[in-house]
Q: What sequence folds into this?
């Protein structure tokens, strides 16, 4: 993966900026530019006479805070630009920025949600997944320690061009990242029913890994991915998501999103057009 520009989404509710931590690490490795976007909701129930003054104060406060957050990156020599936007519909504002960003990678801290919330609400994670035109990295790990295991989730049984190309892209990205980190690449492939059995040696050959690094199982993909990720203590999971249009794009619950709350590792989602 060649990364020259990163869009990093800042969480205005916390000082613990996992997304910015990942952006800083990647920028050091690739010399990529970082664009830090902070979007916040305006104060509620403000008297009309004070509205303009308070709006200016809030904008200034957030701009100063963001400058403070990115200062370590700038001091380390990274090129960093910042953007602060105020919007009552902050999810849509983030989505607009993601859609129009000329970025090679979007990084966002994954918000903790219940399964029902994932299925019923258009969360900011849901919107970013569907609108990003580049890979999305969801930062989940609370620590920034060394990653020794990378897990690539694939489907080698798929026969359509889109899924075959996506499988190749996931394997290539996983191998590239594992190589840069000095980590071990593992692959996982779920199947349903014995008649669809995936032979581990075939998976290992397709991914170019050792047999013990190829994991298969008759299970739902999100369950198997979570299980294997925990078993090998993966620091990063790489998964693909086929782009959708029309009504299909409105369906919440693809595998990439469902694993956001079941996997403790960071999650890199690659998209097809």
A:
């Amino acid at each position: 993966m060649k990364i020259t520009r990163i869009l990093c989404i800042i969480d205005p509710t916390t000082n613990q900026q996992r997304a910015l931590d990942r952006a800083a690490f990647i920028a050091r490795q690739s010399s990529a530019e970082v664009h830090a976007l902070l979007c916040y909701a305006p104060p509620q129930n403000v008297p009309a006479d004070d509205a303009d003054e308070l709006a200016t104060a809030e904008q200034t406060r957030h701009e100063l805070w963001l400058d403070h957050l990115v200062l370590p990156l700038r001091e380390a020599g990274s090129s960093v630009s910042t953007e602060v936007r105020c919007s009552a519909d902050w999810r849509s504002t983030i989505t607009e920025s993601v859609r129009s960003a000329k970025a090679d990678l979007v990084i966002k801290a994954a918000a903790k949600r219940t399964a029902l919330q994932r299925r019923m609400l258009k969360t900011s994670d849901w919107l970013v997944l569907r609108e990003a035109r580049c890979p999305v990295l969801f930062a989940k790990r609370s620590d920034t320690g060394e990653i020794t295991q990378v897990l690539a989730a694939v489907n080698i049984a798929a026969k359509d061009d889109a899924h075959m190309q996506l499988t190749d892209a996931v394997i290539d990205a996983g191998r590239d990242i594992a190589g840069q980190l000095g980590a071990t690449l593992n692959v996982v492939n779920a199947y349903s029913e014995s008649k669809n059995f995936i032979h581990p040696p075939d998976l290992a050959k397709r991914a170019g890994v050792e047999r013990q690094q190829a994991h298969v199982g008759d299970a739902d993909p999100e369950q198997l991915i979570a299980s294997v990720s925990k078993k090998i203590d993966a620091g990063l999971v790489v998964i693909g998501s086929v782009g959708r249009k029309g009504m299909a794009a409105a369906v919440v619950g693809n595998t990439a999103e469902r694993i956001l709350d079941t996997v403790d590792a960071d999650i890199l989602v690659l998209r097809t057009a």
